[in-house]
Amino acid sequence: MKFIVDKIKLQEAISNTQKAITGKSAMPVLQGICITATKSEITLVGSDLDLTIEARISADIFEEGRIVIDARLFGEIIKKMPNASIEIETIDDKSIYIKCLKSTATLVYMDPENYPSIPHINEDVVLTVQQDIIKHMIRGTIFAAAQDETRPILTGILFEVEEGKLNLVALDGYRVAIRRQLIDCNHNISAVIPSKTLSEVSKILEDSDKAVNITFTDNHILFNLGNTKVISRLLEGEFMKYSSIIPSEYNLKVIANRSDVLNAVERASLMGKEGNTNLIKLDIADDNLIISSNSQLGKAREEVSIILQGESLKIAFNAKYLIDIFKIIEAEEVVMEFNSSISPCVVKNKEDENECTYLLLPVRLVQN
Amino acid sequence: MKFIVDKIKLQEAISNTQKAITGKSAMPVLQGICITATKSEITLVGSDLDLTIEARISADIFEEGRIVIDARLFGEIIKKMPNASIEIETIDDKSIYIKCLKSTATLVYMDPENYPSIPHINEDVVLTVQQDIIKHMIRGTIFAAAQDETRPILTGILFEVEEGKLNLVALDGYRVAIRRQLIDCNHNISAVIPSKTLSEVSKILEDSDKAVNITFTDNHILFNLGNTKVISRLLEGEFMKYSSIIPSEYNLKVIANRSDVLNAVERASLMGKEGNTNLIKLDIADDNLIISSNSQLGKAREEVSIILQGESLKIAFNAKYLIDIFKIIEAEEVVMEFNSSISPCVVKNKEDENECTYLLLPVRLVQN
């Protein structure tokens, strides 16, 4: 194998494929990047079997071939090379020789025969979405996915296509996060993707309107970004019927400035944090939201002006969960809907109530 | 106690005094900031007994008084308050009441009677230096101070005033770092300051030409920055006679571009790091510096163009130590002076050979 490639392009491709290399596998070969040189391009693959990332870059190929090279060391060496063309060549059947201007290095490589084959997927593209949109949808739901493995399916995010709408849904038993986007698609799809792999996918997606093509198979999802492909295994099992959890009616509706509420809750929660509880109380009455908390260290009281439609209400929440939601909504004003102090609260973007729905269960207070 | 103070000023004063609060003391009161309201200003003090930081800010005082308040919680609450005037008042003999616009909090305070008295220092100023200069001098030496406590005096930095020059010196048995600055001072001084406290001092010093007044006593050094005073305990004992270690002659002199050498050493060191050794070899001959390293994972070879005066030489170093030195020198070109493969190497700024001197012991190679 012998090729010459641009340093910046190679560094970017390594950085992308490294995101799939978790270093947790018992197979040493999965610590490596598999590099294949064919015709006029090289392909880099990183994988932990759950997640596989493939990056293609153009190169001058003098001899085709395939090797697996330690991802971390190779990545560090390329990163520190001068910004120029890099020549890479296999020598003596077990090493590669790397040359860039006056810098040279030889590195032992691993046998590519041991590298697992990557899942073959027929790319009959189902969805095309802007990269920044899908990136925001992932970011807007991933925090609500379950952390513990009691119900493995809830550690994933549901990708649901229904009636020309893409819905991303995450829930963990305390809260539900839903983001919606109109798309051009006639299929109905329901697939659950591990949030761990989606977190890496969202790092590769750009904050731009470039397209990403998405393909689903029975076991995998493929994101095709052009020169980079990301393949994730799906989670098996049935996702919770989330739509039945969202209350369709409410007794009480609050319209508030998002950052005013966020700042007030953050301040009030400082007391709770110290006292090992994370409880904050909301007292909603007369166009006024009073947020309070207390612990053995002291107490806090915050007032926020709101627009109130309906009866007054006292309700309590885990401050961290409320902060998560108010941080992730990209809106100046939000709508909060309540039914009672023991029913979930629904939070939406006031400008576009269909863009997202967040639901949070209250903490039931012991009566005095 | 009751006062009204500007939020930004208070936040900055808390942030500065917090740098002395390490949280490692057995005295709970040292987790706190001691706040004293007198006449037209409040004074905040943080201390871990080794290091004491005092910040003064103007305030509207309605009632004088003194309290000690948990530094972390108080700091977080003030930081999250809106950007406006903050009213602070003691209530019910054990709490303070904090009010800022529509935000309020009450916080339990600690008894100021238990707070240790801060060292009294007669400020007969000895030195006046620009803040950015002393900050750079600390930064340029602190990395070479000893980390282990085998010889406690070497964990400090020597502040030496001699013949109108301020020298800062740190050494750990493998390397010596010296920075020099001409100053207007007729005294001769020699004091060793713990590098741990100097690290905090350098965070408070600004990157500006504002003055800092420095006073020495038998046991303490005081940095007076105007509204902020920093007092550090000195280390007891005799510092090593460093000047006798620096060779005054050399057989071989190399002039090189600093960043060329730094980048080459950093690349070559990647191999060494992986193999658990950090050794790099320098082969100096014919206006060429060849840097190489190898481990079981591979090998690297780097070439850097230099100007050589004297004989050729092969010598080896711990790559990390060489990188430390080449990173910290603020010069385009450096001078390296050698005597033999088993004598120390001296590195200087080529533009100003008196500004700094770095010395590094080589690693003795086993002969083949």
UniProtKB/TrEMBL annotation, chains A, B:
Top-down, what is the taxonomic lineage of the species of origin?
Answer: Bacteria, Bacillati, Bacillota, Clostridia, Eubacteriales
Q: Domain DNA polymerase III beta sliding clamp central: where?
A: 128-239
Tagged with keyword Zinc-finger: no
User: What functional role does this protein have?
Assistant: Confers DNA tethering and processivity to DNA polymerases and other proteins. Acts as a clamp, forming a ring around DNA (a reaction catalyzed by the clamp-loading complex) which diffuses in an ATP-independent manner freely and bidirectionally along dsDNA. Initially characterized for its ability to contact the catalytic subunit of DNA polymerase III (Pol III), a complex, multichain enzyme responsible for most of the replicative synthesis in bacteria; Pol III exhibits 3'-5' exonuclease proofreading activity.
Q: Which residues belong to any copy of the DNA polymerase III beta sliding clamp C-terminal domain?
A: 244-364
Write out the annotated subcellular location.
Cytoplasm
**Organism expressing this protein natively:** Clostridium collagenovorans DSM 3089
What's this protein's name? Beta sliding clamp
The UniProt entry's GO biological process terms, in alphabetical order, are: DNA strand elongation involved in DNA replication
